[in-house]
Amino acid sequence: MAEKIVGILGGMGPDATVDLFQKILRATPATRDQEHLRIIVDCNSKIPDRTAHIISGAEDPWPYLHESAQLLERAGVNLIVIPCNAAHNWHDRIQASVKVPVLHIMQATADHVQANYPSVTKVGLLAVPATVKVGLYHRAFANHGIEVIAPDKEHQELTTKAIFAVKAGDSGPEGTALLIKAGEHLIAQGAQAVVAGCTEIPLVLKDGDLSVPVIDATRALATAAVKMARGED
Amino acid sequence: MAEKIVGILGGMGPDATVDLFQKILRATPATRDQEHLRIIVDCNSKIPDRTAHIISGAEDPWPYLHESAQLLERAGVNLIVIPCNAAHNWHDRIQASVKVPVLHIMQATADHVQANYPSVTKVGLLAVPATVKVGLYHRAFANHGIEVIAPDKEHQELTTKAIFAVKAGDSGPEGTALLIKAGEHLIAQGAQAVVAGCTEIPLVLKDGDLSVPVIDATRALATAAVKMARGED
Questions:
Q1: Whether domain B105-216 has CATH 3.40.50.1860
Q2: What pLDDT, on a 0 to 100 scale, did the predictor assign at position A1?
């Protein structure tokens, strides 16, 4: 069975796109260039802010997401991944607009937690307010009988601040400190693992930074994409 | 004037493609996602080895390079960059096959050295044997009155070994040590700067590792691409 071409519908933000790209390379067994997958990336950072649309009705990113998915399909990709959690609010519409499968980051993450941390029944969610609001993580984990808890207002604001600092090019220790504070707040409420549910978060919060496992949703998506592309799913 | 869409004809190797992608982001003044350029990447690691073709007549990468350039042009890119020095052996044919400009890494590098190190008259070249053999760096620097020197057989072998270790996923200190040895050998012969003339080299050899400036050809290409895309060239 021929390897599939991976399409990355990216740019939200660009550094998170680089991060997923790199995690796909690291998840691929390869000792020379030619053993890697073909990957086509549309890093369209012009896509309007997902959070601003969901929370306050700013410009709808949908026409841009649709155009990018079409571009990737025309370019010949066989599957699509989207390194932006909040953009998964449009996952069903994107999937309906193309013939190739569009992987789902929340589902990949919930599957990963169930497979690797079978005793976990409650996870904490660090994400932008839009991702928390639309409840996609809640639903994906509920399918596996796992409860999702989100930060209170104060700790959500720390999380959002850390995420937008990364988008502004600042991946320094201040963002890590904010996320650790928000993460430990979730752990104090019973979270047995904390999901880095915004693709900017793994750039500053790593597994080991908290007293429970940090679940890297971007890596879960990368692993799922490599398995599908290599026909191992 | 509208910003241009950058196309990356990549995959040679994939980590070098990520490196150029990241250097384009860092060379772009941006404080939020939407201020970044749109970048479309074809990371086609299946393109046959450039060195193997030039040195020993293995499969010709040209049909693959041609197909990737066409794909990027159809996707709507307004300029193309190629994060592989050896692939510039086909630069003229790629340029002739598309309507959009294809930047030239050797020219971008020679321009960068002339502008930033005006007293330099002799540079050392660390690259794969194919890049050394085709003489593209020699010609680009000769246009600025700068001489290019390459390692002897023994030090060329150290360089090639370090490059293929990176392609195999090993970016550890051994590769850096090999390149420092080869670089200091060039400096002993009068090189006033050393060009990292293979896109795998900047992943393990940084400015400061040698007693003269290390010229990152990938960064010079990224800077030239951002200038052209923003209409500042």
A1: yes
A2: 57
